[in-house]
Write a structure and sequence with these properties.
The structure holds 2 protein chains of 2 kinds.
Chain A: H1 4-9, E1 18-25, E2 32-40, H2 43-54, E3 62-67, H3 79-87
Chain B: H1 11-23, H2 36-55, H3 57-61, H4 70-95, H5 101-109, H6 127-147, H7 153-181, H8 185-204, H9 216-221, H10 229-246, E1 257-259, E2 264-266, H11 272-282, H12 286-299, H13 301-320
Antiparallel strand pairs in B: 1-2
Helix pairs in contact in B: 2-4, 4-7, 6-7, 6-8, 6-10
Classes of the chains: A alpha+beta, B mainly alpha.
């Protein structure tokens, strides 16, 4: 993982460039999806590397590059309690509601 | 790595939960708990795979300046660039396991890391470019199609991406072979000679027979591998025999015969002594390959320094403004 030192000078203590996560958009209107990562000294360099590594065959119409340390991810160990509020509300799903017999599914 | 403090106290329960997830066909992601042994096996296997892509650029790069036409040259440059990209995809996946690419590259250059034995054979004629695409990339596709279902998410996703690109590699190789097969007697002879040299080393690419492969059982249990080395080798042979017949080349194995009961092409004994010699560093080109990689790394030093200096200057300019 990149450290704060990486963010400050683009290069970490053992001489490796900072890590950038790459997101590609396959077509207009499609979401950007994580494709992988590249090492680069700065944003422009990361963008060029991302193009060369992840878009050699027209796989993308748009690229995002994000410093890896800027991404805040949920922790797998907390996944249960963290997502609980979304799991215990069956009334958020259409299947919760009964439709009178004879009414065609809409 | 952030790990819950209960790991040591309750490791066996975590392993059981981990193995249950794998048995249920779930994919394991970078921040999920995994046994240290799984992590180490993946780092070993994925870094060897990444190194193979990078070293694999060398035998083919050798022929770029001598490609027989502009069309062939464009294809070969694109293929070699793809191999660099494949190496980067897999290094990127390996880094999610908590190891730096920097460290992996150092292991390759100082000889601690292994890579596919096939790249320690020389590329002596233009026909080798065709045969490598056909056999070596063909074998890689057989292997990687199964790895695309591996239990570790980042590895599986890299394989999906790579498999799409390898199909171009195999077809461009087979096209070269088919063209030579339709050419002059000298061209046909050159093709057959390349096939003779690369057939057996290509079969060795799948690794030792499972009975002699120390890592196979564990990798299969954790679904890092989904098929045994022998199963994959057999599949490659079954696919390749008709392709050879279609362009009129002979595979150099007098024992090759179809078994109508098993639907498999049976084949002769593989020279495993040769395989272990090559893996052990004594193949025809081991030293040359690493020397070439080291030279490329050293020759690129000024580019890395310039990029770092440029980024530093940009940052200072922003701060000064």
């Amino acid at each position: 993982m990149a450290t704060d030192a990486t963010a400050a000078n683009g290069i970490d203590t053992d001489g490796q460039w900072g890590l950038w996560e790459v997101f590609t958009q396959a077509g207009k209107g499609a979401p950007h999806e994580h494709a992988g990562s590249v090492h680069a000294t700065d944003a422009e360099h990361a963008m060029q590397n991302a193009r060369d590594v992840y878009a050699r065959r027209g796989e993308a119409v748009s690229l995002w590059v994000v410093p890896a340390e800027a991404i805040i991810a949920s922790a797998p160990s907390d996944a249960g309690p963290f997502f609980d509020p979304g799991n215990d509300k069956a009334y958020r799903h259409p299947q919760f509601y009964k439709v009178p017999r004879g009414v065609r599914v809409f | 790595m952030e790990q819950p403090t209960t790991v040591t106290a309750d490791e066996s329960a975590l392993v059981a939960a981990f193995e249950a997830r794998i048995a249920a066909g779930e994919s394991i992601e970078p921040k999920d708990w995994m046994p240290e042994r799984y992590r180490r096996q993946l780092i070993r296997m994925m870094s060897q795979h990444a190194h193979s892509e990078i070293v694999g650029m060398l035998p083919e790069g050798n022929w770029i300046t001598r490609a027989p036409s502009l069309r062939r040259k464009m294809s070969l440059i694109a293929k070699v660039q793809d191999e660099a990209g494949h190496g980067l995809y897999i290094y990127c996946g390996t880094e999610t396991l908590g190891v730096d690419r920097h460290e992996l590259v150092a292991q390759l250059l100082d000889g601690r890391a292994k890579y596919s034995s096939i790249f320690n054979y020389p590329t002596l004629s233009w026909a080798d470019m065709g045969v490598i695409g056909w056999f070596v990339d063909g074998a890689a596709i057989v292997n990687q199609t199964i790895l695309a279902k591996a239990s570790y998410g980042p590895y599986a996703r890299a394989m999906v991406r790579i498999c799409k690109e390898e199909n171009f590699h195999k077809r461009q190789g087979y096209e070269i072979c088919a063209t030579l097969a339709n050419g002059t007697p000298a061209q046909r002879e050159m093709l057959q000679e390349a096939v003779n040299r690369f057939w057996w080393p290509s079969l060795m690419m799948f690794g030792p027979s499972d009975t002699d492969s120390p890592n196979s059982a564990e990798l299969l249990k954790w679904r890092v591998k989904r098929k045994t080395n022998d199963e994959l080798r057999q599949r490659f042979i079954n696919l390749t025999v008709p392709q050879a017949a279609a362009i009129g080349v002979t595979l150099p194995d007098p024992d090759l015969r179809f078994n109508a009961e098993t639907n498999n092409w049976e084949f002769g004994e593989i020279d495993w002594a040769e395989f272990f010699q090559v893996i052990g560093g004594n193949g025809p080109c081991n030293k040359e390959r690493i020397a070439a990689r080291q030279k490329a790394h050293d020759d690129g030093a000024w580019v890395r320094e310039a990029a770092t200096a440029h980024a530093g200057k940009q940052r200072r300019d922003v701060q000064a403004a």
